[in-house]
Amino acid sequence: MNKLADAELLEGWLRARSMARHLPQPVPDRGGLRVDTAMPEELRRYVFAGPSPAITQLAQEIHEPYVFIKMCGPGAHLQSLVPHRWQLQPTGYLMTRETGRNPVPSLPPGYWLQMQTESGVTTARIFADDDTLAATGYAAEYERVFVFDRIATAPAHQHQGLGAAIMAALGTAQQSQAAQRVLVATEAGRGLYATLGWSVHSHFSTVTITPPF
To answer: In this structure, what DSSP letter does residue 63 have?
Structure first.
């Protein structure tokens, strides 16, 4: 399989992520992409495949909170491109994994799995025997990219392999074996995904203007 260029990979991830979250599709803006999320804590986000003078120009024009600028690359580099009013957020990681053979979902005793696909978005939920929600995750496919999104395990149910089970279950929904698997991980999640065969493609850095309190 020919690997996607950084800009293609990022756009595919962003489009599939927007599908998975029922958000507007991204539109080209200043050499990057813009998503008009229009949510209370995120008005919109700008996403760039790497450093660009357009980031500096954009950041100089924006003075309102709840707008996010994101870039593939180290946080220190992104922060050097924007005025001081922009605050660096915790580092994320754009991670990829070749499709290969999908592991079989396996649950520990006392749990059960629910899967649902609607409008191209697959949702996986794991419940405990008392029907409390223990873990969730979402996936969507866009052209040559298959995205895993919002993989989460409730604190009371962690360290039992539920995250890996959610990932394996979502992987069964992939339609094209040529699609590259992509996700954005937190620092905490990076270790889990590494054990499942994922590798870091790049840092994924974010700045925003902190609202006044």
So the answer is: -
Average pLDDT (114-136) is 97
Angle between helix axes 162-171 and 187-195 (nearest 10 degrees) is: 70
Q: 73 and 51 in contact (C-beta within 8 Å)? A: yes
Give CA–CA dist 38/121, Å, rounded.
21
What are the structural domain ranges in the chain?
6-94+203-209, 97-200
Give the residue from 86, 92, 90, 91 showing the smallest Cα distance to 211: 86
Res 178: pLDDT: 87
The domain defined by 97-200 folds into Aminopeptidase (3.40.630)
Q: Is the dihedral of CA 75, 76, 79, 81 positive or negative?
A: negative
